[in-house]
Amino acid sequence: MQEITTAEFEQHVLRGGKVVLDFYSTECPPCEAVAPKFEGLAALYGKDIKFVKMFRQQNKPLAESLGVRSSPTLLFFDNGVQLPITLTGGIKRSDIIHQLDSMLSKERVLEIKKAIKPTVSEFDVLILGAGPGGLTAGLYLCQAKVNTVLIDIALPGGQVSTTHEVSNYPGFIDPQPGYMLSHNMSEQTKQCGTIYKVAVDVTKIDLEKKEVVIDEFETVRAKKIIIATGTSPNLMGVPGEKELKGKGISYCATCDAKYYGDKEVVVIGGGNSAVEEADFISRFASKITMVHQFDALTANKQAQEKLFANPKTSILFSHEPRSFVREGDKMITEVEDLKTNTISKLASDGVFVFIGMKPNIDLFRNKLELDQWGYIKTNEDMQTSMPGIYAVGDVISKKYRQITTAVADGTIAAIAIAKELN
User: Fold this and answer.
1) Which CATH number is 2-114 given?
2) Is 256 marked active-site?
3) CATH architecture, domain 241-353
């Protein structure tokens, strides 16, 4: 694998045969998550396909000319022709493999697959998810000398790692950058001895057998499982959202706000996340228009006061997005006034979406007892409806979802499990 610059693009990409190009950025958790997948696949496919990477900030004009507007973004080329598939954001290993396979003959793909040997590893406790709840559980378990593995499809930290500042975590007088708070949590748990298997694809979860298959070839078994899979951003489901994700629509201010210096953006939402992230985006953007479905913001009062005092920000209350299209270099957000049902258009350089979260339970949705909103029910020891399966953090049914409550959940589950195993 090789890192290149714009000056080397023609030689290594356009005249490089079959090529996959990774545009990455700094301070970008999704970029860090895809990096080990990219490197691992380069070892498998590197004889047939050239793997190159490019630092997006230092090659911005080229990136924009190729339609790259967020990081990470993977582009695929075959003899100088850019293929229509673009992967961006939280890129899965399986999606990369699917595209790489499509560039080779079936016979060659089979040869590469044969080089992948299935493995099995066993632990006392398997933690699914490396946010504050999972990391805290891992810390307590390893200090109790319980053999523990932590599995995550991204890097450790969860949503905290993409939050620009955390001002309400005990022990810190000044607000902490989210990525540093999550980094310190992760390093503490890692140094204690918890085994990490992160930035992987979770292929299958069998709660009855207490087995998790990662990256299609490694089976991880345990006596107990802690589910700490957290939540993911809600999608609006309106025309253009899916097609323009990563191409003008972003769900991560920490990752992408820096690309909108002196530009205009639209922010969808009016809760804590939307208001706090809009404040962060205003450090870069020249103008922010917020679109909120209600006639008042739902964020905490302190965050609202700060937003209202920001001269860069205006708010469209009682409005909802109806579609997104790109016209040249501009994003056009079509919005409806919910009181008059009139439609208007907002032109901007980019759109950020913060409209709430949903629990990440797709791989075991029908296995556990859930509440009416789809969150996992637990008892006071964080046990679920299935023996040997625990759940902590934002994925469980509870009144408040904060970093501190996730940490408390992880503590309780770890202590309960350690006592039971001993």
Assistant:
1) 3.40.30.10
2) yes
3) 3-Layer(bba) Sandwich (3.50)
